């Protein structure tokens, strides 16, 4: 299949013709240089007034399979990704079984054969991990390594963390860290929480419980251990400016989620326990400071920590509701809305969700609209914004913390030249499960 995109505005503002041959970007030329006859294209897409972007790489998702397919599975999660312009996802280890052995990685890779988008599988660390078999497999990175328990109860002690970091360094593998220090949690704050459920729960107690200081201390610890082993440390879902600054000062990398970027404790009255996540939402002042660091380049990437749970599960007390929110389908759309309002540039968004993730994690052939790269492409019309509605999204959980927020959704998503999602014309259609392991 050969597809010619004409008059496409790229992230840098240049208008180009882009020729896709099979799974690869064959040519990128000045607009008007290529025509259908010369390119011998099977399809020509006129992109006049629209932007053609590299597919996003979401370096942090929980597609829940195996073990929790009632929340999400590889088919529904990848459909949601494709509809949001995400063409590569990286799945985390806290499934059942957790991916802490080579055999568990193999099992998950088989299930990922249902994916519409490309994928990576992270290896995890528990007391039962088997590093020899794990590193024999094509894992994407080591992590999310949990320094405090979250969904899946995979928190580990200091000695095991140091051993795991040293092994990863020897294997030249990035370590992604969930940085919270449970010794600095404010348990009295949680004890003061009421017994309400859902939107009536005192969910702010969760933010008071899992303190900002707990994150800052764990980031410092992770960076120190990483320095001892000369390991590449990546701090996951950094929720505080202190954590971002510490990572940047140490030469490590970090990610910020859309929910920490656009939501704060001020939103919890509306969200209730649907706004409980780890690390929790922070103050509006901290949220604004994190956004500033995203805009100015201090934050390396945005990733979603897509962690879906059913409505029934989330509608519990602040002590019992599981932590996590969906986000893989809304990450790029909410960032594109910031481009519309002028708070972020399109080049910055490209770097946050595509170019820089590809560089940090050494994902060859992805992240930019360049000749020779995989044809992971997303066509968007920045003039076509709409409100986010959970009922319109494709995650199995069927809800979103961004209900009612303006966003710009893709009208076409290609994964290695294959149509993964197409909303042009009436309705929408999804492609086949063509996703491949980017490390295989």
From TrEMBL:
- Per its UniProt entry, what is the enzyme's top EC class, as one word? hydrolase
The record's annotation in InterPro entries points to: Amidohydro-rel, DHOase, DHOase/Allantoinase_Hydrolase, Dihydroorotase_CS, Metal-dep_hydrolase_composite, Metal_Hydrolase
Region annotation (Disordered) maps to 304-324
Where Zn(2+) 1 binds, per the record, is at 60, 62, 144, 305
- Active site, renumbered: 305
> Is the keyword Nucleus assigned to this protein?
no
Whether Metal-binding counts among this entry's keywords is: yes
> One biological process GO term for this chain?
'de novo' UMP biosynthetic process
The protein's annotated catalytic reaction(s) are:
(S)-dihydroorotate + H2O = N-carbamoyl-L-aspartate + H(+)
Q: Which cofactor does it need?
A: Zn(2+)
Sites binding Zn(2+) 2 sit at 144, 178, 237
Do you know which SUPFAM superfamilies this protein is assigned to? Composite domain of metallo-dependent hydrolases, Metallo-dependent hydrolases
An MF annotation (GO) of this entry: zinc ion binding
Q: Give the EC number.
A: 3.5.2.3
Q: How is the cofactor bound?
A: Binds 2 Zn(2+) ions per subunit.
Q: Which family does it belong to?
A: Belongs to the metallo-dependent hydrolases superfamily. DHOase family. Class I DHOase subfamily.
- Show the HAMAP family listed in the entry: PyrC_classI_A (MF_00220_A)
Q: What is this protein called?
A: Dihydroorotase
The organism is Halobaculum roseum
């Amino acid at each position: 299949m050969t597809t010619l995109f004409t008059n496409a505005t790229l992230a840098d503002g240049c208008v180009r013709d882009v020729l896709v041959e099979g799974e690869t970007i064959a040519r990128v030329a000045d607009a008007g240089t290529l025509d259908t006859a010369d390119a011998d294209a099977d399809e020509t897409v006129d992109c006049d007034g629209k932007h053609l972007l590299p597919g996003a790489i979401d370096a942090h998702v929980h597609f829940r399979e195996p073990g929790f397919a009632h929340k999400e599975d590889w088919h529904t999660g990848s459909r949601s990704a494709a509809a949001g312009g995400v063409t590569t996802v990286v799945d985390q280890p806290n499934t059942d079984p957790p991916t802490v052995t080579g055999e568990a990685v193999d099992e998950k890779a088989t299930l990922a054969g249902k994916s519409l988008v490309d994928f990576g599988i992270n290896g995890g660390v528990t007391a039962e991990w088997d590093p020899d078999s794990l590193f024999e497999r094509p894992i994407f990175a080591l992590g999310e390594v949990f320094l405090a328990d979250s969904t899946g109860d995979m928190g580990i002690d200091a000695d095991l963390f140091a051993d795991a970091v040293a092994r990863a360094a020897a294997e030249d593998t990035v370590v992604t860290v969930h940085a919270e220090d449970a010794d600095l949690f404010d348990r009295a704050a949680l004890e003061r929480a009421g017994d309400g459920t859902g939107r009536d729960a005192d969910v702010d107690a969760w933010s008071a419980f899992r303190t900002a200081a707990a994150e800052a201390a764990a980031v410092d610890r992770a960076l120190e251990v990483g320095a001892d082993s000369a390991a590449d440390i990546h701090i996951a879902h950094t929720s505080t400016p202190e954590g971002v600054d510490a990572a940047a000062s140490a030469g490590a990398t970090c990610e910020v989620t859309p929910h920490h970027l656009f939501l704060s404790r001020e939103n919890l009255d509306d969200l209730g326990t649907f706004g409980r996540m780890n690390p929790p939402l922070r103050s509006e002042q901290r949220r604004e400071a994190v956004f500033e660091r995203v805009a100015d380049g201090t934050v390396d990437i945005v990733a979603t920590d897509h962690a879906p749970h059913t409505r029934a599960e989330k509608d519990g007390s602040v002590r019992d509701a599981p932590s996590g929110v969906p986000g893989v389908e809304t990450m790029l759309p909410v960032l594109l809305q910031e481009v519309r309002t002028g708070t972020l540039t399109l080049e910055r968004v490209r770097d946050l969700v595509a170019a820089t993730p590809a560089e940090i994690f050494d994902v060859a052939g992805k992240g930019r609209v360049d000749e020779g790269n995989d044809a992971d492409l997303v066509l968007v019309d920045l003039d076509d914004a709409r409100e986010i509605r959970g009922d319109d999204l494709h995650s199995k959980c069927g809800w979103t913390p961004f209900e009612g927020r303006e966003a710009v959704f893709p009208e076409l998503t290609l994964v290695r030249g294959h149509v993964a999602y197409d909303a042009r014309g009436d309705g929408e259609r999804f492609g086949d499960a063509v996703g491949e392991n980017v490390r295989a």
